Amino acid sequence: MMLPQVMLALTVVLGLASANTGRGTVYYQHGVTGSCGQANPDDAIIAAIGDSWMDGESPSPYCGRQIQVTNIGSDDQVGGAGNTLTVTVADTCSTCGPDDIDFSVGAWDSLTDNAGTFNAQW
User: Fold this and answer.
1) In degrees rounded to 5, what are phi and psi of residue 52?
2) What's the number of domains the chain is made of?
């Protein structure tokens, strides 16, 4: 019986195998160059991911990659649940957990309604 292989194939095709869930936070650029080598304004649609993803390299192979993020809710009443946005990886978040993601103000404003944190699936 080949059912496990079929299920694995469906999971990969549907993109479910790569889903990560972590804490979504906001950070300010302050005109500083990120670990990917570019300075971005606060309204840029970018994000920083943890050291475990960035492989401790500068620039990382993840620099410039686009990832789709969905706000799947918040314990902080942040709001915006269901909002989805594609962001570009532009920096490393040294204080992030393995699947946490730190958003520029521009990305944050598109994904949420208030200050706090939210559960981000990407």
Assistant:
1) -60, -30
2) 1
Written as six digits, the tokens of 53 are 């993803």
Question: CA–CA separation, 67 vs 98, rounded Å?
Answer: 15
Q: Could you report the per-residue pLDDT of 6-64, keeping only the tens digit for each? A: 333 333 333 444 699 999 999 998 989 999 999 999 999 999 999 989 987 778 999 99
CATH number of the CATH domain containing 68: 2.40.40.10
Domain interval for residue 105: 19-121
DSSP 111: H
This prediction has a pTM of 0.82
Strand partners, 50: 93
**Residue 79 within any structural domain of the chain:** yes
At 46, is the secondary structure helix, strand, or coil? Answer: strand
